[in-house]
Amino acid sequence: MASDLDFSPPEVPEPTFLENLLRYGLFLGAIFQLICVLAIIIPVPKSHEADTEPSEPRSGEARKPKAAAPSTNKRPKKEAKKKR
């Protein structure tokens, strides 16, 4: 009976290329998520240059708004002439 028991380790196939790619991709995704969470938790000090710029108008804001284009749905009314 003791000779019937097999205590050898089970055969584990070598991981394929796609399995390795998936494993390392998951590791990279987890590291990216940790970096994103740390970026939210840890505050970044603002420079003094950024504090003075908001009082100046930006180049995009300095433009004047465009005149409203006439809508294409409204057509000028035609005058009907009676020929009687």
TrEMBL record:
In this chain, composition skew of type Basic residues spans 74-84
Q: Which residues cross the membrane?
A: 24-44
| Highest taxon in the source lineage | Eukaryota
Region of interest called Disordered, as start-end residue ranges on this chain: 47-84
What membrane topology is given?
A: Single-pass membrane protein
Q: Where is the composition biased (Basic and acidic residues)?
A: 47-64
Does the record bear Transit peptide in its keywords?
A: no
Q: Where in the cell is it found?
A: Membrane
Q: Does the keyword Isomerase apply?
A: no
**Which keywords are on file for this protein?**
Membrane, Transmembrane, Transmembrane helix
Q: Which InterPro entries match?
A: UPF0239
Please name one Pfam family that this protein belongs to: UPF0239
The family database entries (PANTHER family) matched by this protein are listed as:
MANNOSIDASE, BETA A, LYSOSOMAL-LIKE, MANBAL PROTEIN, PROTEIN MANBAL
Could you say which protein family the record assigns here? Belongs to the UPF0239 family.
Q: What is the protein's name according to its record?
A: MANBAL
